[in-house]
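Long-time lurker. I teach an intro course on protein structure, and each term I like to show students one example going from raw sequence to a predicted 3D structure in token notation. This year I'd like something fresh instead of my usual example. Would anyone be willing to generate the tokens for the chain below so I can use it in lecture? Attribution to the forum is fine with me.
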Amino acid sequence: MFEVILLQEHEVMSEASFGQYKSEFISTTEQIKSRIQCEKGGGGEEDVETMLEGTSSVDELLRQGEDLVKQMGLEARGVDDKVVKHDLLEKVKEYKTQLANLRTEYELASLIEVDKDNNSQSSSIVDARSTVRSQNETLIHARGAIADTEAVAMVITEDLSRQRETMKSAHGRVNEVRADAEKGDGILQGMLRRNKFFQGKLW
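-- Reply from a regular --
Happy to contribute to a lecture. Here you go:
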């Protein structure tokens, strides 16, 4: 009973921690979106300078978001309830994809904003933007596929762990049956010896 209470408390703590990381993640992504919108809104020299000054801040926010996603993944895997764990892992996968899309959007916005002043190379810029946009779309799909693969790998790992425990339990039962059989064989041998003894007495 005490162990059940401890498990329930651990699960509640994991879900609570997940909720805290989720709130921080939402706040972080909102800041990233705000910065990206600021970078998209201008086209003058001052806007470019502002963007360059904010580059490290956006990169830092993206790294914070990645760390929060990792923490949420750890908390989700610490939940014992299978249904709750599955739902939390699905959210983690969704947050990974969301963060990957924001990074791609930021990289594209940065490239386009810096290129706005290169009017003499407008044709090359258009081609470059088209190429980058195509590459980024491919990158978004690739990152989504990676997130799906990671989720499947976690499920497979959990299944293997359960199968390993089942095999250990079955091996233990086999040993018990073998011990009982050996004990029964000893009893039978003793009975046979006693039977022979009494037959010898009778003859």
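Some talking points for your students: The radius of gyration is 32 Å. Residues 178 and 184 are 10 Å apart (CA to CA).
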